[in-house]
């Protein structure tokens, strides 16, 4: 194993350049990046039911467009949930966003989506044994459309949504990975 030395910026003091209600812009040496305030994490849900996956689509202001995503939510962001773990948050968010409850939960691991720009990480959890318990659609401030997509059709469905002008969240790649790695030259 080759151990490399840390870059000079790694030991520089962290400076908060700007702070809003939920997000901070920070600098460490030459690096600028965004962080969530209060070190709030996120839970992202890979909800699989038989041969289907549950996806959500909602308008994202930073993108100026609707976005196709895995269901997700912040951990401990609401009053009374400050001490919840990723599974408790995922349980709450899955019901709220999609109208489903899961019988089985599995923590897959901790991941990041844009490590050169964001300090945010998320816990990916797999939910199986789904039961429909409500309509979903999110809170009064959200306009979430729930999609139940056969796993075999995810690539085509994603392509259709992209043609319709929907932005695709990088976490949807978890469903496309094997297809992307296939060698078409065979």
Tell me what you see in this structure.
- The chain is of the alpha+beta class and 186 residues long.
- Helices cover 17% and strands 40% of the residues.
- It contains three helices and eleven strands.
- Strands 4, 5, 6, 7, 8, 9, 10 and 11 form an eight-stranded mixed sheet that branches. The protein has a three-stranded antiparallel sheet with strand order 1-2-3, with no helix packed on it.
- A hairpin with a 4-residue loop joins strand 5 and strand 6.
- 19% of the residues are buried.
Provide the fold topology.
Layout: E1 14-19, E2 23-28, E3 31-36, E4 42-49, E5 52-60, E6 65-69, E7 72-74, H1 86-98, E8 100-111, E9 122-132, E10 145-150, H2 154-163, E11 167-168, H3 173-181
Parallel strand pairs: 4-9, 6-11
Antiparallel strand pairs: 1-2, 2-3, 4-5, 4-7, 5-6, 5-10, 8-9
Overall shape: globular
Proportion of β residues? 35-45%
Radius of gyration: 18 Å
Low-confidence stretches: none
Q: What's the total number of strands?
A: 11
Distance between the termini: 35 Å
User: How many helices?
Assistant: 3
Mean pLDDT: 90
- Helicity range of the residues? 10-25%
Class by SSE composition: alpha+beta
> Main β-sheet: number of strands, strand sense, barrel status?
8 strands, mixed
- Along the chain, the helix and strand elements come as EEEEEEEHEEEHEH
Short account of what is shown:
The protein has 186 residues and is α+β, with helices and mostly antiparallel strands. The chain has helices spanning 86-98, 154-163, 173-181; strands at 14-19, 23-28, 31-36, 42-49, 52-60, 65-69, 72-74, 100-111, 122-132, 145-150, 167-168.
């Amino acid at each position: 194993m080759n151990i490399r030395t840390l870059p000079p910026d790694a030991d520089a003091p962290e400076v908060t350049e700007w702070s809003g209600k939920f997000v901070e812009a920070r600098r460490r040496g030459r690096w600028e990046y965004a962080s969530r305030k209060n070190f709030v994490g996120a839970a992202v849900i890979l909800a699989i039911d038989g041969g289907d996956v549950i996806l959500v689509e909602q308008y994202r202001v930073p993108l100026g467009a609707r976005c196709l995503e895995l269901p997700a939510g912040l951990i401990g962001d609401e009053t009374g949930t400050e001490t919840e773990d990723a599974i408790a948050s995922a349980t709450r968010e899955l019901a709220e966003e999609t109208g489903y409850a899961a019988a089985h939960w599995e923590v897959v691991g901790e991941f990041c989506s844009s490590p050169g720009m964001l300090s945010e990480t998320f816990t990916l959890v797999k939910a199986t044994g789904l039961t429909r318990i409500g309509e979903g659609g999110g809170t009064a401030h959200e306009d979430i459309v729930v999609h139940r997509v056969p796993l075999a059709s995810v690539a085509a469905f994603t392509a259709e949504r992209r043609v319709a002008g929907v932005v695709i969240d990088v976490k949807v790649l978890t469903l496309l990975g094997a297809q992307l790695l296939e060698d078409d030259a065979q």
